[in-house]
């Protein structure tokens, strides 16, 4: 086995870097993530919300639970 780092999509590509260069790359990646998140925030949130809704619907179907909101009967009343 090699000492070189391996990235599944890119293969063994990571060279040895100085501490400063490694820190600079990390800073760049953080800035890139911030740029993408701020530019696409509305779309990212909309997608995440739709995925949560889908997951809730699937769980409800699998559990046989009705997801509609209803007021439960008062404890003194019969259902």
Structure summary, number of beta strands? 0
N/C terminus separation: 67 Å
Number of helical elements = 1
* Poorly predicted sequence stretches spanning 5 or more consecutive residues: none
Main β-sheet description? none
Q: What is the string of SSEs from the N terminus onward? A: H
The shape is elongated
Radius of gyration: 24 Å
Structure class: mainly alpha
Helix proportion range: 55-70%
What fraction of the residues are assigned to beta strands by DSSP?
Answer: under 5%
Quote the average pLDDT: 82
List descriptors.
79 residues; mainly alpha; 1 helix; 57% helix
Structure characterization notes:
The chain has one helix and no strands. The radius of gyration is 24 Å and the shape is elongated. The chain has one helix at residues 19-63. The protein is 57% helix and 0% strand. It is mostly helical and 79 residues long. It has a domain at 16-48.
């Amino acid at each position: 086995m090699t000492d070189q780092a391996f990235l599944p999509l890119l293969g063994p590509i990571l060279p040895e870097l100085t501490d400063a260069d490694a820190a600079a790359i990390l800073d760049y990646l953080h800035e890139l993530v911030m740029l993408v998140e701020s530019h696409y925030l509305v779309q990212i949130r909309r997608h995440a919300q739709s995925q949560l809704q889908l997951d809730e619907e699937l769980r409800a179907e699998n559990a046989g639970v009705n997801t509609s909101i209803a007021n439960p009967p008062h404890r003194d009343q019969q259902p």
